[in-house]
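Hi P.,

Sorry for the delay on this. The queue was packed all week, but I finally got your sequence through. Input first:
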Amino acid sequence: MDTMAIHTYGTNAVDWEERIDLDRLRDERLARLQTTLEASSLGSLLTFDFSNIRYMTSTHIGTWAMDKLIRFAVLPQGGKPVVWDFGSAAKHHQLYNPWLEGESRARAGISTLRGAFNPDAGIAEEVARKVAEVLTEHGLEKEPVGVDIVEMPILAALRQQGLDVVDGQQVFLSARRIKTKDEIALLTQACSMVDAAYEELYRFLRPGVRENECVGLVSKVLYDLGSEYVEGVNAISGERCSPHPHVYSDRLVRPGDPAFFDILHSHLGYRTCYYRTFAVGSASVAQQDAYTRCREFIDHAISLVKPGATTGDIVSVWPRAEEFGFPDEEAAFALQYGHGVGMSIWEKPIFSRLVSLDHPETLEEGMVFALETFWPAGDGWSAARIEEEVVVTADGCEVITKFPAEELLVAGQKYWTAGGSLDTLREAQSHLNTNSKPTNDGRVD
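Then the structure:
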């Protein structure tokens, strides 16, 4: 891979600088998928998954469609993809997606609307007929058809057509696990947008704001910068930090709270997964200790990333579930975790003590993944969470998440007392019990 591949370009196209080449992006993605298919035992791939359709066909009709399972596309071995799309979207592809060669490979078609159509309408049977027709044209109707996700009526109709339907998700994910130069550039751009969101969030975060307000702020920053989809913002504060609930609420942030955030969005189809932790106003010694441990775990993991290392090598330096209050690795899943990032936020490779020690995956140049660590504080309610995205390079890796996280940042107003500034590291905060006792004159020792 080109050692100069990791750039943060402007998002506009210009004539005076070579930036992201979208034609090359489309061609290289399809070529990689075709090569992976040819190396498999499958005759074709059939996809209903939004990300796989985009990877295969370079088509997009809006994030509203991501959970509908209404679109589908097929890639015959040795052939080119055909996509059936929702209503007028197919006509739009014919006009604006020349790589699909007009009506020959951009066709009108609809699936079952997740069962909303009357089953007697024959929609599932029509989907199966369309797919079988293409496969017959290529002489592949007797070869296994790899499908990523499928509704039961569609699966039954495909089998009624005589098609041998098998798991195809592994072929898709295998093709997507190594990123091209342009994919890496897009992933880096996506992270730079989150850098900006964290800058605004750090300025905004203070006692009295609600978690949902933080979500709104982050979403506005990202959409203003050109994000096509804010997939989610985890905003977790105070006692909600431990155990981690993985969903934001309307809780008001209070002085001395820990607050951690995960920002997930899509830039031209490429995702982020990017945690940062802050203390609000001040931090306790317990919070600081949790953050230090969390940082050490992630730094140790990053130091091991290079081609030839395995996911097992990485997770071996992370604590066992029992060390931070969970009975087993399944119960603690995704707290000490890593995952590929691309057109979805969880791709290959996966890093977890649940699976990686017994089933390690080898790291290769061009992989992009996130590593995330968690540690509960000794006070029983606060915690720290940090996540970095890295690109595997020829001799190591490069971190592409740039907002400062080496040490615990304190957000919010700096407070002043008669004796000077209020210390931001405070052993006994006002809402915690202390060992101090009042004297006879009412003063506290």
